[in-house]
Amino acid sequence: MLSNKPFIYQRHTGRVLSKREFEEDVISRVSREVSKYDMIDSGDNVLLAVSGGKDSFVLVDTLSRIHDTGKLLAVTVIEGIGVLFREKEVGKMKSLLKSLGIDYVVVSFKEYYGVGMDEIIERVLEKKLTDSPCTFCGVLRRRLLNSVARELGMDKVATAHNLDDEAQTLLMNILRGDYTRLPRLYPKAPVLSTKFVPRIKPIRKIYEYETTAYAYMKGFGFQLGHCPYVDLKPSLRGFVRKLLYRIEDVEPGFSLRLVENVDKILSKAVYSLKKLPELPVCRLCGEPTSYGRELCKVCELLCKIGVVEC
Ligand SMILES: [Zn+2]
Q1: Is the separation of the CB atoms in 35 and 8 below 8 Å?
Q2: Which domains does the chain have, with CATH numbers?
């Protein structure tokens, strides 16, 4: 039983919550978000993408309480960064999943693409490419998760993006003026290919300071190893993250309002996506690609570093 003593000051609401209240608050907000956007249908099999960090702990802990009609399966993607990165986290996640009766699979870039991130970075540096390591990692991870979900007959892929991640992504897309990508971030955006397993982000309205506190409160509190490549190249995300922290300092709740307001705008704009035809497929791998593009982003990147021939 969690204690009733004051535990956390929730800056964006101005409330002080005990552990028990905080747990209830987080679970009910996740549950509300899941039903507001019809993220999970009754009987859906959901693949949980877990890294082993605090956010994936919150994803597993909350969804295992909310979703009780379909199957939950967890997957970790080993990107192949150093030898130790992720190993400790994976061990802890494994025992948590076992205690909840959730099956667990581990997949890797190396087995799926033939190369891991360390080798990819070596090639990027060798060829003096300007692409950020995070671009490769993000694009390859998304594809791998989609393929695993499809092969295993899952209905949804749930990722552990928190509110800070979500606000950063929205702002980045606005700053880039990427109006074709922006509507796709709406939680109920239509899926543009039958080869895509719909992706959901159940904890997108929970701040990162809250996922940290929640995981710590439940005895899952430890620091994730930092990716050694994160500072290899300054990224827009890093800049936007710092900017949002500074705004939050003077205006608590700013990121939450940003996500909620963009959701409202997109709920209208997203209907334009419904008229779009099925996405074309890549001529190399047969996976979906953008309209008017012969190669998908995965093949384009792997081609740049000489892993596939194009
Ligand atoms: Zn391709």
Answers
A1: no
A2: 6-278 (3.40.50.620)
pTM comes to: 0.92
DSSP 8-class letter at 92: H
297's tokens: 């982003």
> Pseudo-torsion of CA 13, 49, 185, 254, nearest 10°?
20
| Ligand 1 centroid distance, CA of 285 (Å) | 4
Where is 61: in which H helix or E strand?
Answer: helix 54-66
pLDDT of the residue at 91: 80
C-beta atoms surrounding 174 within 10 Å: 14
For residue 222, give the amino acid letter: F
The answer to whether 259 and 179 are in contact (CB under 8 A) is: no
Crossing angle of helices 254-269/236-250, nearest 10°? 120
Percent of the chain at pLDDT above 70?
96
How far is CA 200 from its chain centroid?
9
Ligand 1 centroid, distance to 298 Cα (angstroms): 6
Per the listing, tokens 């693409």 go with: 113
Q: Which residue type, as a one-letter code, is found at position 21?
A: E
The whole-angstrom separation of Cα 28 and Cα 47 is 21
Which residue ranges of the chain lie beneath pLDDT 50? none
- Say how many Å lie between the CA of residue 141 and the centre of ligand 1: 14
